[in-house]
Amino acid sequence: MVYKLSEIAEKIDALILGNHNLEINSITSSVYNNPNTDCRYSSIVFINKYDLNEESISVNKVILLDKSIYEKFKNPEKFNFLIAKNPKLAFALLTNLFKVKITIPKNQIFPNNTNKLLIGENITFGLNFKYGSNCLIEDNVTIGDNVSIENNVIIHHGTIIGNNVIIRSGSIIGSEGFGNVLTSDKSWCHIAHLGNVILKNDIDIGANCCIDRATLDSTVINSGVIIDNFVHIAHNVIIGENTAIAAKVGIAGSCSIGKRNMIGGMTGIIDHITTADDVVISATSSVTTNINEPGHYTGIMPISKHAKWKRMAFWLTKLDKILKKFSINKDINNESNEYK
Description:
- The chain is of the alpha/beta class.
- It has two domains: 3-97, Udp-n-acetylmuramoylalanyl-d-glutamate--2,6- Diaminopimelate Ligase, Chain: A, domain 1; 106-297, UDP N-Acetylglucosamine Acyltransferase, domain 1, CATH 2.160.10.
- It has helices at 5-12, 67-70, 87-97, 306-338; strands at 3-4, 15-17, 23-28, 42-46, 61-65, 80-83, 106-108, 117-119, 130-131, 135-137, 142-143, 148-149, 154-155, 160-161, 166-167, 172-175, 180-182, 188-190, 196-199, 204-205, 210-212, 218-221, 226-227, 232-233, 238-239, 244-245, 250-251, 256-257, 262-263, 268-269, 279-281, 286-287, 295-297.
- The protein has a ten-stranded mixed sheet with strand order 7-8-10-13-16-21-24-27-30-32, with no helix packed on it. A nine-stranded parallel sheet has the order 9-12-15-20-23-26-29-31-33, with no helix packed on it.
- A hairpin with a 5-residue loop joins β17 (180-182) and β18.
């Protein structure tokens, strides 16, 4: 899909500063040069803070931002801009313009298999591919050697799967991510996810797992990762090599999990968290800050009767005041001792 910049500005309610006739064929996550870019067209990049080296910004990029960030540019005349009152909402609308249309899958039966497999267009299969019943593979998927998908597996468009990968029954790879922006009337505008999922080699994914594709780039599961049943991995997440993830773990968007992590069951990790290599996280933990050093971490309170738990929770909220008072009393006592 190719749009003129003037068409896009009208659809997302943005002001153009630059060439209205530029032809746009994509959205990107980087303001810098990409050698694989088709130089006949420009792409749009959304930025929400100014931390850029202007000398390195590609002139082939149109920058979507708000007025306050635009005013920080030292040489704005060199670039093309889309200025929006709510650039995040404008970005959401923009992603929906470039959402990929999927062809209607067709039935296919592989040799030595009586099950029907629904597949789209431009699929690449490696050697020794095995599949169960009621599976679906959408357009532009690449599958390596010795890959096995069990019953009711869905592999969405653009997914890349390496060698020696097992995906167990009911799992969904490359599903739409959960990104939404509030509009002025307090309804939700969904951000269409235009990226993909990359599964490297020697991965084992349990039953009923869901791995979301990235917003613009790739959600990446590196080699040797093992994932238990009922795990959700959100958009833009990167999982390091040989990490083990137990059942019912939820990893929110844009997290980067280190190598050889062991994540206990029912752990929740909030968005944009980074963990070091060789981290162990206890079951049912809540991870709300980065983990920068290897070690065993626990983010839970011990279970107790509800009445006791409420008392503990009450005093936890008062700890800062107690510590402040203790610190003041300690200072007074120290001063008194100096004069004795």
